[in-house]
């Protein structure tokens, strides 16, 4: 037998699936549905691993987990949660959870984690992180954000270099700040530098500093960003725009942990955690020789890819209301937004991602004539959502809908096919699911695609087939 597992889960369906899957791996599983039952089992039974839900019939499964960890420090704990926020992921990390799985989770991945945890039972318990989780900068519960939250929690206890990838406006600096604020370097400085905003001939001086007289205009010694970030985190934004010469010196600094000011002779040791980010595809740049391949591998020890807003549309409501709250602190009027207006916002392409949505909400807060922002206000200030146009395809014909969209679509050279697909694919899939009552097999047949392809697109586009079925 592989080991004895305690499952604390009050959803009978989920419990049955997990028990069956772990049983197939020869685990002996005890299943309880409450904190009281959990504590009673732990009092007289030793377990290789415990899996626990957060919301249980008699309370918060995480709130009392600290006491469990004290009594059973060698028992790995895996947290399952439908409360899919960064706050929940961080709370699990604070309590030294072996792994955190947002619901719905990949069952095979969960089983692999249990096998790994059972094999590592008795290993040293990782240090906890003293952080309340209040005021965290990232907003969203979508499935697309869950991988981001999990990756953030995995790098909080170490100094591995992180490379954040994503389109402009997706919140790359917010992720970097979260890694710093929640990690063990939070008492040190967080220093950000945007490589795209610095003239190429000054970037080495900006990063490493310079000595007096090192070049024309260097009238005094200057401390660079590496030294300013000593003991903390250095965030290198838009790393793909760094000139190749500076990349060489950066690589040397990362490899040695030492820097030399421009015009200086002495090497200076620095203790810095590096987080880099880019909105560029570095692969073609490496092939073209404009980005060093060895630097890429040095930076991308832990890559974190941020989803564009079009792939996490179910987060738009929370983000919109969050930004309306922030608008008040900027001196703008306090506004509310109703559900039909939120639905209209969900129909925009948001090519500028979360940053564009934030600016739009500020503009709506300023321009709205009433306390509540409605659909009419959204359309008057922002225009008609392109998705609303595409959904009228049944009335005016698909070609007409496409033609209408093309008239208002911002032109992005080389991206027309991608943008058109992004606009029309989602409403097309939603329509098929609505017509079939949420039945994925029938919807796939209606669309003429493979069911596995449909399931992947549902995940990528954050489409809930059950919700589509209920609206049928």
Major pleated sheet:
5 strands, parallel
Radius of gyration: 26 Å
N- and C-termini, Cα separation = 48 Å
| Number of DSSP E strands | 16
Question: In what range is the share of β-strand residues?
Answer: 5-15%
Provide the CATH topology of the largest domain.
Rossmann fold
Strand order of the largest sheet: 2-1-3-6-7
Number of domain modules: 4
Explain what the structure shows.
The protein has helices at residues 12-24, 35-44, 65-71, 86-94, 107-119, 143-154, 172-182, 203-208, 225-228, 244-256, 282-288, 293-299, 316-329, 339-345, 353-367, 375-382, 386-391, 393-396, 398-408, 416-435, 440-447, 451-461, 465-470; strands at 3-8, 27-32, 49-53, 55-56, 59-60, 77-81, 99-102, 162-165, 190-194, 233-237, 258-259, 268-269, 273-278, 302-305, 336-337, 372-373. With 472 residues, the chain is of the alpha/beta class. It has four domains: 3-143, 3-Layer(aba) Sandwich (Rossmann fold); 155-307, Rossmann fold (3-Layer(aba) Sandwich); 309-383, Orthogonal Bundle (Helicase, Ruva Protein, domain 3), CATH 1.10.8; 400-472, Homeodomain-like (Arc Repressor Mutant, subunit A), CATH 1.10.10.60. The protein has a five-stranded parallel β-sheet, sandwiched between helices. A five-stranded parallel β-sheet has the order 9-10-13-8-14. The chain has a two-stranded antiparallel sheet with strand order 4-5. Residues 122-135 and 392-396 have low confidence and may be disordered.
């Amino acid at each position: 037998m592989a080991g004895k597992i305690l499952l604390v889960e009050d959803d009978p369906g989920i419990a049955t699936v997990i028990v069956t899957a772990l049983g197939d791996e020869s685990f002996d599983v005890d299943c309880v549905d409450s904190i009281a039952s959990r504590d009673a089992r732990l009092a007289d039974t030793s377990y290789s691993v415990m899996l626990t839900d957060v919301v249980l019939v008699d309370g918060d499964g995480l709130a009392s987990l600290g006491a469990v960890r004290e009594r059973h420090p060698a028992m790995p704990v895996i947290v399952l949660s439908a409360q899919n926020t960064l706050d929940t992921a961080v709370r699990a990390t604070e309590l030294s959870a072996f792994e955190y799985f947002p619901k719905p989770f990949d069952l095979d991945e969960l089983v692999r984690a249990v096998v790994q945890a059972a094999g590592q039972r008795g290993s040293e318990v990782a240090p906890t992180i003293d952080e309340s989780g209040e005021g965290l900068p990232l907003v969203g519960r979508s499935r697309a954000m869950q991988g981001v939250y999990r990756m953030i929690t995995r790098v909080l206890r170490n100094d591995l270099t992180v490379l954040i990838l994503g389109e402009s406006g997706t919140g790359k600096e917010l992720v970097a700040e979260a890694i710093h604020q929640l990690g063990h370097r939070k008492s040190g400085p967080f220093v950000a530098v945007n490589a795209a905003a610095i003239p190429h001939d000054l970037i080495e001086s900006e990063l490493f500093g310079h000595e007096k007289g090192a070049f024309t205009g260097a009238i005094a010694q200057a401390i660079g960003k590496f030294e300013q970030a000593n003991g903390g985190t250095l965030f290198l934004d838009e790393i793909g725009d760094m000139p190749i010469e500076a990349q060489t010196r950066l690589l040397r600094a990362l490899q040695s942990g030492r820097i030399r000011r421009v015009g200086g002779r002495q090497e200076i040791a620095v203790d810095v955690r590096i987080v880099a980010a880019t909105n560029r595809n570095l692969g073609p740049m490496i092939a073209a020789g404009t980005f060093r391949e060895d630097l890429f591998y040095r930076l991308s020890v832990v890559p974190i890819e941020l989803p564009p807003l079009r792939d996490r549309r179910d987060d738009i409501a929370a983000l919109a209301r969050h930004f309306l709250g922030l608008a008040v602190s900027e001196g703008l009027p306090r506004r509310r937004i109703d559900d039909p207006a939120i639905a209209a916002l969900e129909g925009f392409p948001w090519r500028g991602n979360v940053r564009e949505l934030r600016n739009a909400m500020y503009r709506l807060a300023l321009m709205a004539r009433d306390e509540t922002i409605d659909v009419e206000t959204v359309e008057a200030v922002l225009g008609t959502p392109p998705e609303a146009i595409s959904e009228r395809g049944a009335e005016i014909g698909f070609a007409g809908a496409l033609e209408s969209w093309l008239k208002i679509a911002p032109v992005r050279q080389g991206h027309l096919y991608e943008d058109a697909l992004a606009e029309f694919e989602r409403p097309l899939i939603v329509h098929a699911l609505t017509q079939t009552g949420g039945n994925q097999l029938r919807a796939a047949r209606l669309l003429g695609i493979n069911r596995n392809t449909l399931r992947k697109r549902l995940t990528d586009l954050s489409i809930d087939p059950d919700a589509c079925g209920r609206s049928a």
